[in-house]
Design goal:
Elements: H1 3-15, E1 21-23, H2 32-41, E2 45-48, H3 54-66, E3 72-77, H4 87-97, H5 116-126, E4 130-134, H6 140-148, E5 152-157, H7 160-168, E6 173-177, E7 183-184, H8 200-210, E8 215-218, H9 224-232, E9 237-240, H10 254-261, E10 268-271, E11 279-282, H11 285-290, H12 303-307, H13 309-318, H14 340-355
Helix pairs in contact: 2-3, 2-14, 3-5, 9-14
Bound molecules: flavin mononucleotide.
Length: 356
Amino acid sequence: MSDTLNRAKKFCDRFGLRAPILLAPMAGASAPSLSIAVANAGGLGSCGVLLMQPDEIRSWSREVRSNSNGAFQLNIWIPDPAPKRDPAHEARVREFLGKWGPAPSAEAGEAVPPIFADQCGSMLEVAPPILSSVMGLYPPDFVKKMKDRNIIWFANVSTVAEAKAAEEAGADVIVAQGSEAGGHRGCFDASEAEAKQVGLFSLLPAVVDAVRLPVVATGGIADARGAAAALTLGASAVQIGTGFLRCPEAKIHPAWADALARTAPEGTIVSRAFSGRAGRSIATNYVKAALGADAPRPSPYPIQRGLTAAMRAAAAKEGDVHRMQAWAGQSAGLAKNEPAAVVFQQIWDGARALLN
Ligand SMILES: Cc1cc2nc3c(=O)[nH]c(=O)nc-3n(C[C@H](O)[C@H](O)[C@H](O)COP(=O)(O)O)c2cc1C
């Protein structure tokens, strides 16, 4: 067996997987059915708990455990301090958003995310085999609690410097997120999200060389060619988000799923238009307008998320992808409308054939 396949096999043996393919954590798009399908196919399921209350985290985990072998990760954003409010600027953003959906209410910007400490408490209680972090690192006391419970820490990073910091802080596995990735960029410092965009072809070998830990590759991988390339560049496994979103088990809005199929790499764009934090989505009419020179800059996270909620809800009701939060990686066009087990097996069989 080649060194590349040996490295992947070592990773699979350590985590009880039949193939080195991980479902990416996707807050708001982590249907239990998708994790169940991926885990039962021999991969790792996953849940982005960002928007979930502790009881939702518990019930998601119960459902996935009772319908699979329980191979999954729970993932959370490391929060930033609450942003400063700017009522005058928020009024301009509300006025702009009023052209795209129902006018956001005066309180829309006040929506607060679930309490991080409570979410962390329920993740420890659930004690999945793996917990992952993004947008920063778990604090040392939490890392100790994870290690006391034999929970493995996967740290998402988007630069070499972040990978080194994660290794230093006690991470067990590094997940290197290339700038091709769909959804929010995982950079630790939100202000650097646009300036420090590194594609996976450059990021992955550099991270592999910089740390002693196994590295998982994510961002723009959606078929056998991408998976084989990432394993060749030194990854121990690949993590796929957008590539699974058209599977029926993902249960995303049909207008979003259909639009993914029509999206070329240059048809996605990084913006702060939905949440106030940089993320890659389809370059829809709303996103292009929000990036326009005459549009007010988005409010900071999570204020912008609250301000855009009414527009997003109306878009979902009307099936209008142009105003939906249609997150998409640059390989969206490769995503297939097939059961997740079929997508999974095709990627792994094809990657193995290329690597043998
Ligand atoms: C809809 C969506 C939601 C996401 N939410 C999260 C999240 O909550 N936590 C996280 O670490 N990454 C999140 N990501 C990023 C993915 O984990 C992963 O880095 C990305 O999907 C990889 O790129 P790909 O979409 O091209 O496969 C999200 C991605 C998408 C598409």
